[in-house]
């Protein structure tokens, strides 16, 4: 917990801000060309971008990082440091940091993301270890440079990076032996103390009761397992996929782009429809995934803002992308809405919902040059709107992700060919795998959303 989320992040931010301490007589700040956030105006603008980016994070990402220019020295949590450094910074530093140092930083991010996974694939261990070792070696060349007055740059935490993956192999993923679980248990137990006169005896009893309950659950899991109660009006699709309200009460004719996408999907699945067929669909607003995340849709999120409703932090405005997902084939998409199709019988009736689908806008594939230069830490995709409408099966959705706007580099912004496309580039931010607090949880559903039907 402390190595990656507090110690290393403090070192990285200290370098970017030029706040690690120096000897003015021998080491000038002008020589620190890596300190791209040294200027106060740049730092404040960067902090504003971090605060605005929280609008793009789904609720399953838990607490989003606050503005570091205002809050980093006043109760900034380890959770915020983790998402700020390993989630935001690869994209936010793209336009302001020199490519040499940005590529070096991305080695840390790529290796750390593997170390933070709850299950570490064997094929990822060796590349991640190589990247972390290269980061440490290049750190000494780029920053320390064998100078005595910069010896304090080389902290013990830096050396700890070289042991992350070997220890992963020896004792398992980091979340099994980190302090996240311990501090979470301490917080839960102390919150249960009800006796002020004998707190320690009360704490011992609470711990004993927890141990007894855990033993019973281990012996009789099927008896003590609580049944999941679905919200009113929800539709269980099987395999832990659940359609959730809001939903439109009556089917409505879809746009030409959506109709074309649906025809292409049906043709690919050998479903013939008349040439004059005009799709009328009843839309659904949300989908719960097997991992507990809830995928929302642009249909309701954008409509809610047009009606003047406050925007939830995991929702976007009409100018921003919302409800982004990762598909089983590795593509990323924005969900427009969910819907079901019924199979018509020979007598003109129906036999219920035959398939549950999603209308999505597919992002372009990640830019291969950026992906290569950043060792996979920065996946930059272009949003294509109605040009990339597709229909997919809802069970092809793997997870909910964030797509955060990617600011162009100076040479890109000055290029006339890229000037009209600069606002359409977004970088992928996935929920980090070290989410111990998410084990056994599902994203909380607001009661007002469960009954938010369209009239």
Defining key terms:
17% strand; 13 strands; single chain; eleven-stranded antiparallel sheet; globular; alpha+beta; 455 residues
Low-confidence sequence ranges = 310-320, 434-441, 446-455
Report the order of strands and helices.
Answer: HHHHHHHHHHHEEEHEEEHEEEHEEEHHEH
Oligomer: single chain
Mean pLDDT: 84
Description:
The chain is α+β, with helices and mostly antiparallel strands and 455 residues long. The chain folds into three domains: 2-177, no CATH class; 180-224; 235-450, no CATH class. Helices cover 40% and strands 17% of the residues. The chain has helices spanning 2-17, 40-53, 68-71, 78-92, 99-115, 122-144, 156-160, 164-171, 179-191, 199-219, 221-224, 256-268, 298-306, 368-373, 410-413, 416-419, 447-450, and strands at 235-238, 241-247, 252-253, 280-281, 283-288, 294-296, 324-327, 332-344, 350-362, 380-382, 389-393, 397-405, 425-429. Helix 1 (2-17) crosses helix 4. The protein is globular and about 80 Å long. The model is unreliable at 310-320, 434-441 and 446-455 (pLDDT under 50).
How would you briefly describe this protein structure?
With 455 residues, the protein is α+β, with helices and mostly antiparallel strands. It has helices at 2-17, 40-53, 68-71, 78-92, 99-115, 122-144, 156-160, 164-171, 179-191, 199-219, 221-224, 256-268, 298-306, 368-373, 410-413, 416-419, 447-450; strands spanning 235-238, 241-247, 252-253, 280-281, 283-288, 294-296, 324-327, 332-344, 350-362, 380-382, 389-393, 397-405, 425-429.
């Amino acid at each position: 917990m402390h190595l990656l989320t507090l110690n290393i992040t403090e070192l990285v931010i200290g370098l970017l801000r030029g706040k690690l301490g120096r000897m003015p007589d021998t080491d000038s700040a002008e020589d620190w060309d890596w300190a791209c956030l040294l200027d106060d105006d740049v730092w404040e603008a960067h902090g504003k971008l971090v605060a605005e980016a929280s609008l793009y994070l789904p609720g399953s990402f838990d607490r989003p990082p606050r503005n570091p220019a205002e809050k980093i020295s006043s109760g900034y949590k380890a959770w915020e440091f983790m998402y700020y450094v390993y989630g935001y910074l690869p994209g936010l530093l793209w336009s302001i940091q020199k490519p040499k140092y940005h590529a070096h930083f991305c080695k840390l991010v790529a290796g750390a993301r593997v170390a933070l996974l709850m299950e570490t694939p064997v094929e990822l261990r060796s590349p991640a270890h190589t990247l972390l070792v290269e980061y440490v070696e290049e750190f000494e060349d780029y920053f320390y440079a064998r100078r005595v007055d910069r010896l304090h740059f080389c902290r013990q935490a830096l050396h700890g990076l070289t042991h992350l993956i070997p220890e992963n192999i020896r004792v398992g993923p980091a979340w099994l032996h980190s302090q996240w679980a311990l501090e979470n248990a301490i917080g839960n137990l102390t919150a249960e103390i009800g006796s002020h006169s004998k707190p320690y005896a009360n704490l011992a009893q609470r711990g004993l009761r927890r141990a007894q309950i855990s033993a019973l659950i281990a012996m009789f899991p099927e008896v003590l397992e609580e049944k999941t109660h679905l919200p009113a009006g929800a539709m269980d699709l099987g395999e832990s996929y659940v359609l959730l309200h809001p939903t439109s009460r009556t089917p409505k004719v879809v746009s030409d782009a959506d109709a074309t996408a649906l025809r292409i999907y049906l043709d690919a699945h050998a479903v013939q429809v008349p040439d004059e067929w005009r799709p009328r669909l009843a839309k659904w607003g949300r989908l719960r995934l097997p991992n507990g995340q809830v995928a929302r849709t642009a249909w309701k999120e954008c409509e809610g803002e047009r009606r003047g409703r406050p925007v939830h932090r995991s929702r976007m405005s009409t100018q921003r992308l919302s409800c982004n997902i990762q598909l089983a084939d590795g593509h990323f998409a924005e969900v427009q809405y969910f819907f079901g199709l019924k199979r018509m019988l020979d007598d003109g009736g129906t036999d219920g919902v035959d398939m549950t689908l999603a209308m999505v806008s597919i992002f372009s594939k990640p830019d291969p040059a950026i992906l290569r230069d950043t060792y996979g830490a920065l996946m930059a995709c272009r949003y294509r709107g109605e040009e990339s409408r597709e229909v997919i099966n809802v069970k092809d959705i793997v997870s909910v992700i964030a797509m955060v706007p990617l600011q162009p580099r100076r040479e890109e912004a000055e290029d006339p060919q890229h000037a009209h496309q600069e606002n359409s580039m977004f970088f992928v931010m996935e929920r980090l795998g070290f989410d111990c607090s998410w084990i056994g949880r599902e994203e909380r559903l607001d009661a007002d959303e469960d009954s938010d039907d369209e009239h």
